[in-house]
Amino acid sequence: MYRDPDPRFDSLGGHPVALRPLRVGMIGIGTVGAGTFRVLARNQATIAGRAGRGIEVMVVSARNLSRAAAVVGPGVTLTDDPLQVATHPDVDVVVEVAGGTGPAREWVLAAIGAGKHVVTANKALLAEHGTEIFAAARQHGVVVAYEGAVAVSIPIVKALREGLAANHIEWVAGIINGTTNFILSKMRDEGVDFAQALAQAQALGYAEADPTFDIEGIDAAHKITLLAANAFGMPVRFGDVQV
């Protein structure tokens, strides 16, 4: 069976090829951003061994630079201007983990316009502005990767776009909001009321201090918008989803 050559080795003697690390800029270093940074730093050797090249986070934007410095340590450039990250000449990939839809749209489009690939888990941004963002990515020949925006660690986006590309999908169903799943399970299994179940979810960190997006169905609507676009080959139209 034919296999693509391993990019870590040359085609003659199987000797390791020294590829420079993929250079990453991060917009945001809050809870999600800090976790992402630590995983990339901790798993450097594993990533390089499997992918054939390492990943180097070289610049990070943050509102609180002193707190960001405590996370990233020395050797990483810090800035309070996300556009500096988005357009940095040495960055290959911009990771947007700041959240929101207004400024984040500007930053992502700036990164795409500067020829950067983008990674984001910002489901609200893509559900509301995905058509514009994906069109810009096609125009500039870059990739917008967003597997973490739907179902977190379950690779549903890649499965729909690649693994099931030859299949006709008629419907999609699943539990796509963990907070409401926790709340409803508590109400059913333990007989607690909604307010008690929500308070437990917040105490455990499953629900935000402002749980509106979860309990009003907005988070689920963002996710189903992206799932529908991938499953049925339709434009991303959050406004057409009934919440």
Give structural notes:
The protein is of the alpha/beta class. The chain folds into 2 domains: 22-156, 3-Layer(aba) Sandwich (Rossmann fold); 163-240, Dihydrodipicolinate Reductase, domain 2. Helix content is 47%, strand content 11%. It is built from 11 helices and 6 strands. It has helices spanning 31-42, 44-51, 65-72, 82-86, 102-113, 123-140, 156-163, 178-190, 194-203, 212-215, 218-232, and strands at residues 22-27, 55-61, 77-79, 93-96, 117-120, 144-145. It has a 6-stranded parallel sheet, with helices on both faces. α5 (102-113) runs parallel beside α6 (123-140), α7 packs parallel to α11 and α8 (178-190) crosses α9 (194-203). Mean pLDDT is 88; it is low at 1-5 and 11-15.
Largest sheet: 6 strands, parallel
Question: What do we call the CATH topology of the largest domain?
Answer: Rossmann fold
Helical content band: 40-55%
What is the CATH-assigned architecture of the largest domain?
3-Layer(aba) Sandwich
| N-to-C span | 49 Å
Average pLDDT works out at 88
Tell me the strand percentage band. Answer: 5-15%
Low-confidence stretches: 1-5, 11-15
Structural class: alpha/beta
**Element string (H = helix, E = strand):** EHHEHEHEHEHEHHHHH
Q: Using the CA coordinates, give the radius of gyration.
A: 20 Å
Instruction: Characterize the overall form.
Output: globular
Number of domains: 2
What is the H level of CATH, i.e. the homologous superfamily of the largest domain? Answer: NAD(P)-binding Rossmann-like Domain
Number of strands: 6
- Assigned CATH class of the largest domain: Alpha Beta
How large is the count of helical segments?
11
Biggest sheet, spatial arrangement of strands:
3-2-1-4-5-6
